[in-house]
Specification:
single chain; alpha/beta; 7 strands; 59% helix
Length: 497
């Protein structure tokens, strides 16, 4: 038996390996298979919870180009389907579809492969055109674009470049369609193993059974030994979501908030329970902050599981807590709560199957719900307070804080207003005053601010002149003999005089 110099492998074994690779390459690059993989990549990429960057690792340069073209066409078909669905979708689903449509229309994708001799002719023989990709790689800084979290270049197709020693924290998904093992496998997986804002975990989608080599690679390059592995199945994400839901339930149940009860009723009964829940959760500050923290953990865990079908059983409780946190964060009043109720009704009552479970949770505030302190009608405010005491008090407090801040910025001698409000809020959070006392104190505080705001007119001075006048008669309020001129830079009090 003949051997290659320096290699402990026979010619016969080498021939077997070549034949095995040839068969594997033929299977992996079969056009029908690539079509199916492209459809799956497009759907998964569009429906992920964390919309970070993604990387498709192809077996070779030609396949990288082929998959780029196929996935791009598949995403175009998804856009067309969403446009049709949007015409008949209910409100909650329609908002999510519109959001996804806007994101998909913005998506940019690129091929990133090394240069090779005769590559243009070689790929043209396979019906592929690498020239526009090569020109783009030479013309643009694709690496900088891909590393920029805000750049629309969100999906790249590679075969060897960028799979080792390339750090992009926002990569959320790696699509593996190339046989790998040992060091290369570990390095490729590590591309998704970086922390980024909003990212719970990196996801590896394995199309060729690469993970059969994972344990061996871990044993060699990840220290080996022990039962703990840095690579976990999606069952771990299910457990994380269940734990997050259990934690938030245990937090709200002693307060009298029952997610199951909200899901069990409809219409006015559901509106009443949502209203009650917001009243309970919006204050004091520490309770509200903890509730928002716990519900954020639920939302992150749910999104990390998407688009897996195992997310389906958890949609309804997740929707309840996400919607309640939305309402609390937006300081919604009674009128606005009906909008939130309508949205949650759609999420809870519609039969969501198949791809519908992949609809991302709508993010951000959906209503204003703020109190306007200019020309405030205290009688109307009292009516609002009677309907929703805590919500109304919190909205009033938020506007009072904003107005006190602006008054103090225009005249530093009004710092006592901020300090007075801070003490009032501290007493309320500590339970020293109840909601009704807090509300009455806020009204008195707002009247005092209105009186102070009109003082310049009574003194027949401009706001700047009043600020300088106050500093002159209250020298203890300025430091170092100087203060800030409201219309420009520093001015010495002596100069103003």
């Amino acid at each position: 038996m003949k051997y290659y110099a320096g290699l402990d492998v026979s010619l016969e074994e080498t021939s077997i390996c070549i034949l095995q690779f040839a068969r594997q390459y033929t299977l992996i690059t079969a056009p029908d298979r690539l079509d199916k993989v492209a459809e799956d990549v497009a759907l998964h990429f569009a429906m992920r919870g964390y919309r970070g960057k993604a990387m498709f690792v192809a077996i070779d340069k030609a396949t990288a180009v082929a998959m780029h073209d196929r996935v791009k066409a598949a995403i175009a078909r998804l856009i067309e389907q969403d446009q049709e669905r949007l015409k008949t979708a209910h409100e909650a689903e329609g908002a999510a579809i519109a959001d996804r449509l806007m994101w998909l229309r913005e998506v940019d994708m690129a091929v990133v492969v090394s240069h090779g001799q005769n590559e243009i002719d070689d790929l043209r023989k396979k019906g592929l055109d690498i020239l526009p990709h090569r020109e783009r790689m030479q013309r643009e800084d694709l690496e900088a674009k891909f590393k920029d979290p805000h750049d629309p270049l969100r999906l790249v197709f590679v075969c060897a470049m960028w799979i080792t020693g390339f750090d992009v924290p926002t990569i959320g998904t790696i699509y593996l369609d190339k046989p790998m093992k040992n060091h290369t496998l570990m390095q490729t997986i590590a591309r998704a193993n970086r922390r980024a804002e909003g990212k719970t975990s990196g996801v590896i989608v394995d199309y060729v059974g690469v993970f059969q080599n994972l344990q061996k690679a871990l044993a060699i390059y990840a220290g080996g030994g022990g039962d703990e592995t840095p690579i976990k199945g999606k069952e771990a994400l299910v457990v994380t979501l269940e734990q997050a839901l259990a934690t938030v339930r245990s937090f709200v149940q002693p307060l009298g908030v029952e997610a199951d009860a909200i899901m069990a009723v409809r219409d006015f009964d559901r509106l009443r329970l949502i209203n009650q829940a917001i009243e309970i959760l919006i204050a004091p500050d520490e309770r509200r902050r903890e509730f928002l923290r716990l519900t954020a953990a639920v939302t992150r865990a749910y999104k990390a599981l998407l688009p897996d079908e195992r997310a389906a059983p958890y949609l309804r409780p997740v929707a309840v807590f996400h919607t309640l946190s939305d309402a609390v964060r937006a300081r919604l009043g009674p009128v606005d709560i009906s909008e939130i109720s309508a949205r949650i009704a759609e999420l809870l009552d519609e039969k969501l199957e198949g791809v519908a479970i992949l609809t991302p949770i709508v993010e951000g505030d959906t209503a204003e719900g703020r109190v306007d302190l200019s020309g405030i009608d205290f009688d109307k405010l009292a009516d609002l307070f009677a309907a929703s005491p805590k919500v109304t008090a919190e909205r009033l407090r938020e506007e009072a804080e904003e107005k006190a801040r602006k008054l103090t910025e225009s005249n530093p001698t009004r710092q006592h207003l901020v300090e007075r409000l801070e003490k009032l809020v501290a007493d309320y959070n500590a339970g020293s005053v109840d909601t009704e006392q807090f509300f009455e104190a806020l009204k008195a505080f707002i009247r005092d601010m209105d009186f102070e705001e009109r003082r310049a007119a009574r003194e027949e001075l401009s706001e700047d002149e009043l600020a300088i006048f106050d500093l002159l008669i209250k020298p203890e309020l300025h430091q170092g003999g100087a203060t800030r001129r409201l219309t420009g830079g520093p001015i010495a009090v002596g100069e103003a005089a």
